[in-house]
Design goal:
The chain is mainly α. About 60% of the residues lie in helices and about 5% in strands. It has a two-stranded antiparallel sheet with strand order 1-2. A hairpin with a 7-residue loop joins β1 and β2. The radius of gyration is 18 Å and the shape is globular.
């Protein structure tokens, strides 16, 4: 057997393919035509109304061209409202529409189920270990990403 089948990079690529497939299957079964990045965008906008498109891209680790297409599709589906910023005419402020808020609520249980399916067959301990290790690796190598994850700084309270 070729060594490629046990290489971390190969396994991660395969796991990504499987994850995307399981997510898409779950959404199709629920009659929803949205992708995982679109769900991520909706979820972040649900908790951060009024952020700009560049900040959204950073918060879900997507490059600028990709987030443009994601936002365009969400606007086209009536799930996101996009307005030019009053302080920076180049920036686009985003927020969920009522339909977008409803969609996030509708999708959450389906997404939870699809995430559970991805780790199906692992013990609870193995699931926790996988999540801890995957999180550690992504944090250690975040700066190597084409689109590093950038979370907003927490506001200090007096």
């Amino acid at each position: 057997m070729s060594a490629i089948y046990t290489m971390p990079g190969h396994l991660i690529r395969r796991l990504q393919q499987i994850s995307v497939s399981i997510f898409a299957e779950g959404m199709k079964a629920g009659g929803i035509d949205l992708t995982s990045p679109q769900f991520a965008a909706l979820t972040v906008l649900d908790g951060n109304p009024g952020i700009d498109q560049a900040t959204l891209a950073e918060m879900i680790a997507l490059d600028r061209p990709t987030i443009g297409g994601v936002v365009e599709r969400l606007v086209g589906k009536g799930l996101v409202e996009r307005k030019t910023s009053e302080t920076d005419r180049r920036a686009k402020r985003l927020k969920l529409t009522k339909q977008g808020k409803d969609m996030v609520k509708r999708m959450r249980p389906m997404v939870v189920a699809s995430q559970a399916r991805i780790l199906e067959g692992l013990s609870d301990v193995e699931k926790e270990q996988f999540t801890v290790i995957a999180d550690k690796i992504t944090r250690l190598h975040n700066d190597q990403s084409r689109a590093p994850l950038v979370l907003p700084k927490k506001k200090e309270t007096a």
